Amino acid sequence: MKVGVDIQNYLPHRAPMLMVDLILDIDANFVETEFLIKEDNIFVDNGIFTEAGLIENTAQTCSSIVGKKYFFDEDGTENENVNVIGFISAIKNLKIHTLPKTGNIVTTKATLVSKFVGDDFTLCTMNCQSLLEDKILLECEINLFIQKTISETT
Predict the structure, then answer these.
(1) Of 42, 59, 88, 89, which one's alpha carbon is 20 to 30 angstroms from that of 140?
(2) Are the C-beta atoms of 116 and 124 separated by less than 8 Å?
(3) In terms of domain of life, where is this protein from (predicted)?
């Protein structure tokens, strides 16, 4: 069963860099998200969502599967004052077939291939696919580095 969950519960990103609206499905090895492309999006050029926007959407989708480890305890309790930083460490076999337009809803799916968890960081590789209905927009393999940072309290 698919349930919409606000992506902001799983990522530190906020507007104007937030490129995912809802998590439709998520577990330890798979995530599916949805994103409505609006005219005022920073990655829209002449009504077209650019390649950089599709890649950022994909990275944020992938990050949510890893980010939940830092934002929620095993029992589902939300951790407060958690800060993370993430980087795309590699993109492999990137194929962009077509670009969506404003008003389109992009669905992005990512499956975990491998994961290494350290004390305060996670490295992962994920297979990704972005779709507009049944039409493939993007496919790739992405490597991410996510690290918990120390928050200063005064």
Answers:
(1) 42
(2) yes
(3) Bacteria
Which residues sit opposite 26 in a β-bridge?
31
CATH number for the segment(s) 5-149: 3.10.129.10
Dig out the tokens for 137 from the structure.
């927009």
Dump pLDDT digits (tens) for 10-48: 555 556 678 999 889 888 899 999 999 999 999 999 999
For the entire predicted model, the pTM comes to: 0.82
- Better-predicted residue by pLDDT, 38 or 67: 38
* Domain boundaries of the chain, sorted by first residue: 5-149
Hey, which residues does 90 pair with through a beta bridge? 143
Rounded-to-integer distance, Cα 65 and Cα 58, Å: 12
**65 in Cβ contact with 126 (< 8 Å):** yes
Task: State phi, psi for 62 to the nearest 5 degrees.
Answer: -65, -40
Convert 92-109 into a string of H (helix), E (strand) and C (coil).
Answer: EEEEECCCCECCCEEEEE
